[in-house]
């Protein structure tokens, strides 16, 4: 469902992503785990077609994001780390705008939108301008608007940022359910516990390289080349001791 081949990105002389190759099958909940600056957002921007790699390719449901961008984007739901809205629109107007972009049937869009607003506790904010919404409410609106067209592939950058525990649970439950129903999910997180709780498989990114890949159980039992357990190594990376 997500096929990433030799994906590489440079910012000037910095190699931010180095030869990432990865296949994420349909219905898998996959997490990129890595400390700040590891290359997670760079990988996500490349695989959603927002940036062009210096090398490599990405296919979503068989569509190359560079060669067939419209087809690839039609199957994709994407929630960036900082969502961008038309601030003067109300939450409901924004949902209708998204439905138009995806050329959705109006009645179906209204029905799905109403269902999502209920699930994500957004009813109360439907007629409020987005510029007046709190960070957590905006994050929930970003997620609902990305789910509206029922994408086959869902990519979300740091999903829990800004959410209180109640809404974090709502988001986790919804994503888990959709993944079980066949949606392929790729999320990025720097939080080990979020990856552990949600992901079927985890890829650890460090300094632009995929240094480990497997289920949480597999990662915990693996040892890095220096003999350290990966969990221990990851915690060191996050605390900045790994250089
Ligand atoms: N537009 C840019 N120009 C130059 N360097 C960049 C740019 N975007 C990211 N970088 C650098 O590329 C590297 C990878 O950044 P990236 O944002 O992909 O990491 P990340 O894993 O998402 O980090 P975080 O958890 O902090 O969001 C970092 O060293 C970052 O400083």
TrEMBL record:
One Pfam family cited in the UniProt record for this chain: ABC_tran
GO molecular function: ATP binding; ATP hydrolysis activity
Transmembrane segments: none
InterPro entries: AAA+_ATPase, ABC_transporter-like_ATP-bd, ABC_Transporter_VariousFunc, P-loop_NTPase
Superkingdom of this protein's organism: Bacteria
Keyword line: ATP-binding, Nucleotide-binding, Transport
Record-linked SUPFAM superfamilies: P-loop containing nucleoside triphosphate hydrolases
Entry keyword Nucleotide-binding: yes
SMART domains given in the database record: AAA (SM00382)
Domain ABC transporter: 2-232
Stated name of the protein: ABC-2 type transport system ATP-binding protein
Organism, as annotated: Roseimicrobium gellanilyticum
Lineage, uppermost ranks: Bacteria, Pseudomonadati, Verrucomicrobiota, Verrucomicrobiia, Verrucomicrobiales
